[in-house]
Amino acid sequence: MSLRNIAIIAHVDHGKTTLVDQLLAQSGVFRANEAHAERAMDSNDQERERGITILAKATSVLWHGAAGDTRINILDTPGHADFGGEVERILGMVDGALLLVDAEEGVMPQTKFVLGKALKLGLKPIVVLNKADRPHAEPDRVLNDAFDLFAAIGASDAQLDFPHLYASGKQGWAVKDLQKDPKKDLAPLFDLIVEHVPAPAAEARVDEPFQLLAVLIESDPFLGRLLTGRVEAGRAIPGAAIHALGPDGKEIEKGRISKILAFRGLKRQPIELAEAGDIVAIAGLSKATVADTLCAPEVNRALPAQPIDPPTIAVTVSINDSPLAGREGDRVQSRVIRERLLREAESNVAIRVSETAEKDAFEVAGRGELQLGVLIETMRREGFEVSISRPRVVFQTDPDTGERLEPIEDVVIDVDDDFTGVVIEKLSARKAELKDMGASGAGKTRLTFQAPSRALIGYQGEFLTDTRGSGVLNRVFSHYEPYKGAIEGRRNGVLVSNSEGETAAYALWNLEERGTMFVGGGEKTYQGMIIGQNAKSDDLDVNPMKAKQLTNVRASGKDEAVRLTPPRRLTLEQAIAYIEEDELVEVTPKSIRLRKKVLNPTFRKRRMRED
Q1: What element of type H or E holds 372?
Q2: Does the pTM exceed 0.70?
Q3: Would you call 422 exposed, middle or buried from its count of C-beta atoms within 10 A (0-12, 13-18, 19+)?
């Protein structure tokens, strides 16, 4: 039986996971009467809630096509730029890639990012123009744009001669000719994969000693640590002695293969033999991690690991030391938080964790606010209580000039024509440069910017307000440039509670004229906690617990019914992006609160004077 390994790469929301659903269904993975969830590969709770893929995952289908029986290992990758580390690791395991491009939206920043990584590794992608059934789809224009992108990135002649198909992942069809071919199933796509993607080169090394480069890591309650990768040489059998080598070639540990799991549809099944070229998960080692080489005892040279782009944004994660600490979570000690963060950095190579000068605080660096937000949300659901600082960019120094460099991102914005002026004005004030502007159809304009990563921290909420929720903003890291100077931060001050207790509806009702509330009546608060946004630019200490003084005089019209405006509830990512340098986000399993770093107003004012 022949073997093919492919990755599905695309910009976020261009239909990768939906297409994988149909590939699984049409290859006979699901029985006709078997119920299966939509977006079956998105197994994580947060993936289902957010509607995006966060973790790269492997699956496998058996195709009985024109070329005979073929096992196709499919790797579904995230589309969001923040999870690019997952894509970079995965591409080293495969011999081909399906590049999905939305036939309506066209080429986007993340399309350029993932395609650049694939071409650099020498892969020859198949272009699939997905969502070709949409009424506003322009597949031919998008195909030309895709060709221009290949040429701009520096594709070779062989890579420029890419095959393409028109498809609808939702309806489950793919065709070579959109007008003439019947739109019935995905057989043309399966056959093209078998024909165009080469068999793994590793198959020629099947008689050499066993070697596997670990690319994904996870924990199983019964089997312990599972390391997934492609067998680069030889054969693996349960019980065989192996050892793990670090990227520098040093031995990390010795052990035996306790189990080999292969991907068969959505399930992982134990197998008795894995040969060179196959993608499998191996259990039996306790210290080896991502980028380590698992190999036979006689092998002493490590396999080269794919380099990962460095993190661009960092936050400080510290213990929760507010007056309400320890009431909702059970994991509050710095030791436990440190262990959890280091465990995350081990399995996710795009995240870097380092100690800080302060005790009980750790710096966590990643690709973007969403990636860090997903990590903190996961910890919160596990029972952790932590405090999070404002995100800051990770600067670099030019080795030749000693100049400070900051990360720059490519930003593509689709917005209604009426709102282009305000978007250009706001981003220009944040040191962004407008690179291109053109109509994208249906009364919308596409704006392309290059903006410092600093400028985009906290801009998403403002952008949605400015465009009445109709704008779409996509961004991806591009390169480093010299520091562009100070950027104006949040324009509004905040309302800060000056005492501890429960908020009173009467007090909040009187405070509404001062600004927007983040809390409702009857909620616990403490001195130094931020309860709302001030309408003016300065911070204001207020008393949200002041109750109405009752008298023995009752007259009609004297008692007005207190009707509060519903408070503005910030999500975790919004809260992290909203705060300033002197503020923190308190995250517990049940609550997200904003607070000042220094709770006492007297000490806070004294520190401001000193600064």
Answers
A1: helix 369-381
A2: yes
A3: middle
Reported as a single tens digit per residue, the pLDDT across 545-584 is: 887 776 655 544 444 567 888 998 988 888 888 888 889 9
Q: Is 134 exposed, middle or buried (0-12, 13-18, 19+ CB in 10 A)?
A: middle
What are the residues facing 316 on neighbouring strands? 363
Looking at residue 556, what is its pLDDT? 45
Phi, psi of 512 (to 5 degrees): -60, -30
CA angle 466, 468, 472 (to 5 degrees): 80
Distance CA 164, CA 149 (A): 15
Beta strands in 163-306 (DSSP E): 164-168, 173-175, 211-220, 224-233, 235-236, 241-245, 251-256, 259-264, 267-270, 274-275, 279-283, 293-295
Asked if residue 113 has pLDDT above 90, the reply is: no
Question: Which two structure tokens, joined as six digits, stand for 474?
Answer: 């996509």
Give me the residue label for tokens 């480069």: 213
Residue 25 main-chain phi, psi, to 5 deg? -65, -45
- The Cα–Cα gap between 601 and 603 comes to 6
Non-local CB neighbours of 576 within 8 Å, separated by 6+ positions: 315, 369, 372, 373, 376, 388, 390, 391, 585
% of residues, the chain, pLDDT over 90: 23
Q: Are 427 and 435 in contact (CB under 8 A)?
A: no
What ranges make up the beta strands (E) of 380-483? 386-388, 392-393, 396-397, 404-416, 433-441, 444-452, 472-482
Nearest to 13 by CA among 44, 42, 43, 45: 42
Choose among 145, 160, 153: nearest CA to 113: 153
Q: How many helices, marked H, and strands, marked E, lie in the chain?
A: 15, 35
Residue 184, phi then psi, degrees to nearest 5: -115, -40
Locus of tokens 């993190």: 311
Mean pLDDT of the chain: 84
- Give the strand pairing for 173-175 and 211-220: unpaired
pLDDT tens sequence across 331-376 = 889 899 999 998 888 777 778 898 888 878 999 998 878 788 888 9
How many Å apart are CA 358 and CA 338, to the nearest integer? 13
Which helix (H) or strand (E) segment holds residue 593: the answer is: strand 592-596
State the pLDDT at residue 32: 45
CA separation for the pair 241, 7 (Å, rounded): 31
Which residues pair with residue 411 across a beta bridge?
449, 475
Q: What is the pLDDT of residues 72-100, one digit of tens each?
A: 888 877 766 666 666 777 788 888 999 99
Give pLDDT, residue 34. 46
* HSE-up of residue 429 (Cα within 13 Å, Cβ side): 10
Per-residue pLDDT averaged across 23-44, rounded? 58
499 φ/ψ angles, rounded to the nearest 5 degrees: -155, 175
Buried b or exposed e, range 209-247, using 16+ CB within 10 angstroms = ebbbbbbbbeeeeebebbbbbbbbbbbbebebebbbbbe
CA distance 129 to 140: 9
**Under 8 Å CB-to-CB from 309, ≥6 apart: which residues?**
84, 85, 88, 350, 367, 477
Helices (H), 154-281: 157-160, 187-196
